[in-house]
Amino acid sequence: MPTVDIMNSDVSSVFENIKKHHEFFQSVIPLIASENVTSLSVRKALISDFAHRYAEGKVGERYYQGCKYIDEVEALAIKLSKKLFNAEHVNVQPISGVTANLASFFALTDPGDILMALSVPHGGHISHSNFSAAGIRGLTILHHPFDSETMNIDPDKMHELILKENPKVILFGSSVFLFPHPISEAREAADEVGARIVYDGSHVLGLIAGKEFQDPLREGVDVLAGSTHKTFFGPQRGIILTTEELAEKIDKSVFPGIVSNHHLHSLAGYAIAAAEMLAFGKDYARQTVKNAQTLASELYNLGFDVLCENHGFTKSHQVVVDVSSIGGGKNVSDLLEKAGVILNSNLLPWDDVSKSHNPSGIRIGVQEVTRLGMKENEMQVIAEFIYDATIGKKDPMNVRNRVTEFREEFSRVEYSFDRNPAYQLTDIRW
Length: 430
Prior knowledge:
Blueprint: H1 4-25, E1 29-30, H2 40-46, E2 57-58, E3 61-62, H3 68-85, E4 89-91, H4 97-108, E5 114-117, H5 133-136, E6 140-143, E7 146-147, E8 152-153, H6 155-165, E9 169-172, H7 183-193, E10 196-200, H8 205-209, H9 216-219, E11 223-227, E12 238-242, H10 247-258, H11 264-301, E13 305-306, E14 318-322, H12 329-338, E15 341-342, E16 344-346, E17 361-365, H13 367-371, H14 376-389, H15 396-407
Parallel strand pairs: 1-15, 5-6, 5-9, 9-10, 10-11
Antiparallel strand pairs: 2-3, 4-12, 7-8, 11-12, 13-14, 14-17, 16-17
């Protein structure tokens, strides 16, 4: 058996690495499009005794005792979500966006059915493909026709393909998500062939909540699924919103289908984030889109090959840049990490999947820096940092020092209850 000293050393190592990680992210510019930062109010929920408990089943119908207060919180989370998204039915039990997608697939399809979704090089998420959730369900994948110039689904060709191939589910949403998807254009064809429409809103859920992107439930989707920690600034988990007609199927697919206990501490955190989104979401979503468009324009003016110039670059939180002429996505993202700018490389539509190790593109998301209080002026500064470290060929450590100094002014989470005395939580002694 290891000695106490060795075990203490291991524990110390964990906390030391956590400390270093915190210090690192407090001194860099976080531009990963799939991440965000939660408020202190949400973080207090995450360390509560909810983290120790089980609550299998529905509100008021649990298989465990001791769930009285958990029921109150889950009921509140459902109520707030219905109001936020104007949804008939909400299931807040999925523990991630992938489990939300998988539950939707189980509810609406049988193995062998056709799922129409975007391919990974065209921006589709891995859970939409045959090597992840869709494949686990045994679905046959049919890819949406894609227009590389507009970085979007071709609506006319999509309509034709739906009528020709009779998919069981038409899936919208993607990981590279610059513009709203053509939901209404698909609805008529979907009705003709008896297909359901599912929208994976993981990346844009906060923009949908803030009324700044598109409104999938009003445009004709049957199911809106997604994760709650990207543009939606909650803890890492998932959500499914649907109609009363599909409520029972969805709920059974979630539990007992693919979720047992549903991580009650993050459920409580989600309820707080949903309340924050109701209070501040419109301003936050509007500023997020403004920031993305400003950053895209600034990068373009500095000589970067920013996609979709003729279409305003973006209407979401994302900016996509072809950096194949300056080393490729992996090389550029590695260099920018040395300079303190954190983003990721990304396949572009013209890339072969074999280029995954160094694809042509980088993907930038501004949702987290927006939550930290940055606005258009800061986007100009960030564009200059990116230019200096890449095209400008400045010493990345020199840029890193400037980035660290820049970040000192942005250490608080905005669009939250944390800074409003009226919303301060009482003393917590857990």
